[in-house]
Structures are given as C-alpha cells and as structure tokens.
C-alpha cells in the first residue's frame, strides 16, 4: 500500500520502487485483496498472514482500516488467513486505536523507527522525536500486540556508532523482532537530490555489512530476532536505484560476519587450538561467510573445515 496514510514524504522514501507497485486507491486495494483471498480459499493452501506495508496503515481513515481488517477476519474464520500485521509510524498509534484494531484481529505492529537520534530524524524529515519513537513502541506493547522495530542505518548524519546505539535502545524496548534496512538512494527522492549535489554519500557495502553484523550480535545477546536485513529485490528496483549498499545475499553476508567474533571468542576462551566444533545445522549455509570470505579468519585461529561438524542442536560445542 505505497504511501497510503502517510502524512508527508520522508527524505529517502520511494515505496513504488521498494514494493514494485504504484500508488493505489484504497477501494482498488481492498478489491484486489479480496480477489487474492477468494482465490486461495478455493485452492486448499495453508493459511497465510496478511501484511499491510508500504504506507502508514494506522493513519488511514478508521472506516478503511476496519474494512481491511474485517475482510481479513472473514477469511480467518474460513481458515485462509492465520494472522494480520501492519507497518506504521510511531506517532500514528494510540492505545484506544490499537485496542480497537486488536479486537478486529490485528496482532503485530511494525514501527518504522529508523533511528533514535533526533538530529538524524529531523534531517530525514520524519516529523517525530526519539521520545515519541520510544513511546510508540511502548504503546504497541501495552495494547498486547507483538512489536516489530524497523531501523534504517546510514541516513544523512548517521554513523555506525549511532546505529549500534539504536539497536541497543531498540532491544531495551523488548520487540518481538527487528529489521535492518541500510539506507539506499532512489531516483525522485529528496535524498537523490542531496546525493546528486554531492551532499550525501550512502554507506559502502562493507560499512553496511559490518555495522549490521555488529548490530545483529547485539540483538542475539538480547534474544531479539532480526528477521530481515537489506531491502528486497522487487520489480523495478534496479532501474530506480541510484546508489547504496544493495546485495542479493546481504542478509547471509551479515550473518556470516556476525558469527566470526562469536566463535573466535570461544576459541580464545578454550585456550588452545580447537579439535572439533559442533555447530547448529541452521547456520551451515552461512557459517563460512559469503563465498567463503570468513574461512581465513577461522583458519588463523586453527579452525578449518575438517574440524567442523553439524548437528541438530541450537548451540555450539567446542573442544
């Protein structure tokens, strides 16, 4: 739902590129959703969760919010829908509103916090403060909903150190999950104009990947899941993209790098060259890093591929 309900256009925003959709009237979006759900109802598929993304869902007229949620509720009763989530701004939630939406079946609210730094928020034209961002998170939790926090590292004036502070503050608010979306430059945005004038430079892929790896470890330490890192490659993305840290394997790259200090710290604590590492099967695809980029770092500590085995447990065992 690109831009739907948004009170203003943020400096970096290009939802038509990120969602692969142009702006759509609400009645058209409702009809399209009903068509999709009706088709699934007749095909015997497993239930799906509906997500209302791309705009500010809770800032839509209440009548329209209710129409979307009542439609979802109807198909939930038919076993087609398993749940409903939305994305919105932290200054567009209130306890009375969320209580009503909870009654209608909305279970998860993702807040586009972006950062807790007031100067960066102002420069990005977000229109709210860090205090309001935190209060919005607390309001979602008070309503009994699952909270998701979206962070946008690399905005104008934003540093890697600021991002790690953002992650720590986000974890302290106890979200169910987070997403990291490193800032990129899309055509037709205010950020594109700054970039073209030489007044803004996006983070390099290396900077973004390393910062997100550090942020991911903070999330792990606080038992907070990070369910997405990097923007998705949707239709039309490449044509609209001017610059920024975009990579099809960005999430895998970050997870591989995040694991390195985690494992090396344990090797150092072992006090000798390791003979065997039992590692969770779940990390097998990214343990050695993107295209094996982490292998030399492990080899320096005496950990080579012949010393690593995979098991079904969720923890590591080193000896």
Can you offer a commentary on this structure?
The chain is 42% helix and 16% strand. The protein has 319 residues and is an alpha/beta fold. The strands form three sheets. The protein has a six-stranded parallel β-sheet. A three-stranded mixed β-sheet has the order 10-9-11, covered by helices on one side. Strand 9, helix 12 (295-300) and strand 10 form a beta-alpha-beta unit. The longest helix has 21 residues, at 250-270. Keywords: 4Fe-4S, Iron, Iron-sulfur, Metal-binding, S-adenosyl-L-methionine. Residues 1-225 form the Radical SAM core domain. One of its GO terms (cellular component) is cytoplasm. It holds the Pfam family Radical_SAM.
Across the major sheet, the strand order is: 1-2-3-4-5-7
- Dominant shape: globular
Which architecture of the largest domain per CATH?
Alpha-Beta Barrel
Compute the gyration radius: what is it? 21 Å
Number of domains: 2
CATH superfamily of the largest domain: Aldolase class I
Number of strands: 11
Order of helices and strands: HHEHEHEHHEHEEHHEHEHEHEE
Instruction: List segments where confidence is low: pLDDT < 50 over at least 5 consecutive residues.
Output: 17-22
Estimate what percentage of residues fall within beta strands.
15-25%
Look at the structure and give the mean pLDDT: 94
Query: Which class do the helix and strand fractions yield?
Result: alpha/beta
Largest sheet data: 6 strands, parallel
Instruction: Determine the N-to-C terminus distance.
Output: 52 Å
Cofactor: [4Fe-4S] cluster
Organism: Desulfovibrio subterraneus
Keywords: 4Fe-4S, Iron, Iron-sulfur, Metal-binding, S-adenosyl-L-methionine
Domain Radical SAM core: 1-225
């Amino acid at each position: 739902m690109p831009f739907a309900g948004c009170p203003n256009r943020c400096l970096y925003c290009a939802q038509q590129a990120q969602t692969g959709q142009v702006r759509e009237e609400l009645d058209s979006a409702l009809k399209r959703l009903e068509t999709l759900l009706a088709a699934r109802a007749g095909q015997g598929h497993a239930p799906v969760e509906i997500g209302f993304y791309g705009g500010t869902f809770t800032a839509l007229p209440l009548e329209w919010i209710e129409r979307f949620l009542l439609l979802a509720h109807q198909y939930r009763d038919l076993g087609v829908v398993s749940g409903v989530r939305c994305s919105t701004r932290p200054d567009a939630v209130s306890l009375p509103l969320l209580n009503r939406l909870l009654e209608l079946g909305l279970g998860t609210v993702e807040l586009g916090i972006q950062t807790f730094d007031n100067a960066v928020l102002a420069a990005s034209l977000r229109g709210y403060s860090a205090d309001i961002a935190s209060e919005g998170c607390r309001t979602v939790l008070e309503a009994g909903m699952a909270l998701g926090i979206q962070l946008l590292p690399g905005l104008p004036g934003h540093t890697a150190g600021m991002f790690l502070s953002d992650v720590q503050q986000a974890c302290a608010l106890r979200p169910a999950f987070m997403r990291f979306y490193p800032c990129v430059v899309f055509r037709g945005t205010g950020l594109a104009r700054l970039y073209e004038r030489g007044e803004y430079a996006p983070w390099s892929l290396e900077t973004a990947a390393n910062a997100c790896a550090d942020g991911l470890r903070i999330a792990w330490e606080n038992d907070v899941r990070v369910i997405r890192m990097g923007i998705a490659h949707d239709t039309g993305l490449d044509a609209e993209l001017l610059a920024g840290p975009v990579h099809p394997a960005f999430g895998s790259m970050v997870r591989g790098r995040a694991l390195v200090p985690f494992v090396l710290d344990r090797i150092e604590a072992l006090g000798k060259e390791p003979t065997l590492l039992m590692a969770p099967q779940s990390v097998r695809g990214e343990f050695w890093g993107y295209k094996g980029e982490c292998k030399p770092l492990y080899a320096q500590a005496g950990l080579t591929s012949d010393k690593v085995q995979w098991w079904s447990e969720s923890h590591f065992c080193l000896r």
